[in-house]
């Protein structure tokens, strides 16, 4: 002890590590499509206009200060977030049956949920889609919560493997916890249809599973907040017990501000009070209380009708730009007569394209073409621009031949 020579060097994070490699690359052609962060068509990070306006309002508001928030965060913010998830007319909200804490973005929400499971459902496994955003698994691992995969991806048809998914949900012990991507599944870009969601719901209901909606892309799948909350709201209306982790990183562009929530539905409003009192203790011992600035931005936008509309328009514009890039990439691959079928590039939704490139092909994209993407074939379409799309298509064409 003392010189810490016993500490081995850790491998780079599979997603953040790619961005570090990108930064270190001096090739002028380099492209970063590894991280799920929106870029303008000029390849620049975007601060939304509604966010800038909200920040100005916050700066001018002389009643605000830098005092601590309570452990659970800002309760007005939490109530606005609940409405965004469950809907204005939600009976659960009217009955006061949802416990919500402000969190350090989506990752902090997932970790808080894991801490809750460890204490109040010890030994219960969380079932996670295969594939998924890799951090889902590692958060459970680091929190000491058992986790298992369920089938999700039909590799051959590049689509949802509904039968496999339903089989695995049926085979899980009654009362398991099922992690579901609320909208814009990461990394596949394939969401269940309404009918498929209904089938998933019936199985989960019959099995008494708790469904954990991870909502990191509300508004990015269809461009519409309500449509992207379809499954969550339907499950809530049908009385399934729910967890929800919510992130404002992508849909507000507040990546580094760390703004999110963790919610769970409870059987009574008294239980909500007990659950929140325990959340306060868990949070107190993790990081004491959450930061204020990002939550103030979201609160300001969600409670001002004009800013709210402006945000919705900006969110739509971001998702439309991504859809446009899907089309351009697809057209270019067709023009190049790139071997294989590429229809999935335009069929998939959300921020990512699960290209179907093999680990070797993905590696060649990075090492030969300086296009930083994930080893599982995931390309962030949010980083594709008019300026780099032809280069990306040419590189794909090269590595698949
Ligand atoms: N959940 C999913 C599926 C994600 O893809 C992400 C981010 O990429 C998150 C949660 C959480 O991100 P953050 O902690 O930045 O809100």
Automatic annotation (TrEMBL):
The keyword Transferase applies. GO terms for molecular function: L-aspartate:2-oxoglutarate aminotransferase activity; pyridoxal phosphate binding. InterPro entries: Aminotransferase_I/II_large, Asp_trans, NHTrfase_class1_PyrdxlP-BS, PyrdxlP-dep_Trfase, PyrdxlP-dep_Trfase_major, PyrdxlP-dep_Trfase_small. It is an enzyme of class 2 (transferase). Its cofactor is pyridoxal 5'-phosphate. GO terms for biological process: amino acid metabolic process. The keyword Transferase applies. SUPFAM superfamilies: PLP-dependent transferases. It catalyses: L-aspartate + 2-oxoglutarate = oxaloacetate + L-glutamate. Residues 29-396 form the Aminotransferase class I/classII large domain. Keywords: Aminotransferase, Pyridoxal phosphate, Transferase. CDD domains: AAT_like. Its EC number is 2.6.1.1. NCBIfam families: PRK09257.1. Belongs to the class-I pyridoxal-phosphate-dependent aminotransferase family. In eukaryotes there are cytoplasmic, mitochondrial and chloroplastic isozymes. Homodimer. This is Aspartate aminotransferase. It comes from Cymbomonas tetramitiformis. The lineage of its organism: Eukaryota, Viridiplantae, Chlorophyta, Pyramimonadophyceae, Pyramimonadales.
């Amino acid at each position: 002890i003392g010189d810490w020579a016993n500490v081995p060097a850790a491998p780079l994070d599979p997603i953040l590590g790619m961005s570090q490699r990108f930064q270190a690359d001096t090739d002028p052609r380099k492209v970063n499509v590894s991280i799920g962060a929106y870029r303008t068509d000029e390849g620049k990070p975007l601060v939304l206009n509604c966010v800038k306006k909200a920040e100005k309002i916050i700066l001018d508001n002389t009643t605000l200060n830098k005092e601590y928030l309570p452990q659970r965060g800002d309760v007005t913010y939490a109530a606005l977030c609940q409405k965004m998830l469950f809907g204005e007319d939600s009976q659960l909200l009217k009955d006061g049956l949802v416990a919500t804490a402000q969190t350090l973005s989506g990752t902090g929400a997932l970790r808080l949920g894991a801490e809750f499971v460890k204490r109040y459902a010890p030994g219960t496994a969380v079932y996670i889609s295969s594939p998924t955003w890799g951090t889902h698994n590692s958060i459970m691992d680091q929190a000491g919560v058992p986790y298992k995969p369920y089938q999700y991806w039909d590799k051959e048809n590049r689509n949802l493997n509904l039968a496999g998914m339903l089989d695995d949900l049926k085979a899980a012990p009654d009362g398991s916890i099922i992690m579901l991507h609320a909208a814009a599944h990461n990394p596949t870009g394939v969401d269940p249809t309404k009918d498929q969601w209904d089938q998933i719901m019936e199985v989960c209901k019959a099995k008494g599973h708790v469904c954990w909606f991870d909502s990191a892309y509300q508004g990015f799948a269809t461009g519409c907040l309500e449509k992207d909350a379809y499954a969550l709201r339907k499950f809530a209306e049908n009385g399934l017990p729910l967890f929800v982790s919510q992130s404002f990183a992508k849909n507000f562009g507040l990546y580094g501000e760390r703004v999110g929530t963790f919610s769970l539905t409870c059987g009574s409003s008294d239980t909500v009070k007990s659950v929140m009192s325990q959340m306060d203790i868990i949070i107190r011992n993790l990081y004491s209380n959450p930061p204020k600035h990002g939550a103030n931005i979201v609160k300001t936008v969600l409670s001002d009708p004009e800013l709210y509309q402006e945000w919705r328009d900006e969110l739509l514009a971001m998702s439309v730009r991504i859809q446009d890039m899907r089309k351009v990439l697809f057209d270019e691959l067709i023009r190049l007569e790139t071997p294989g079928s590429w229809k999935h590039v335009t069929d998939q939704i959300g921020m990512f394209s699960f290209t179907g490139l093999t680990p070797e092909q993905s590696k060649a994209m990075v090492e030969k073409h300086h296009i930083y993407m994930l080893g599982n074939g995931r390309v962030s379409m949010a980083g594709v621009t008019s300026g780099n799309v032809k280069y990306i298509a040419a590189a794909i064409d090269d590595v698949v031949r």
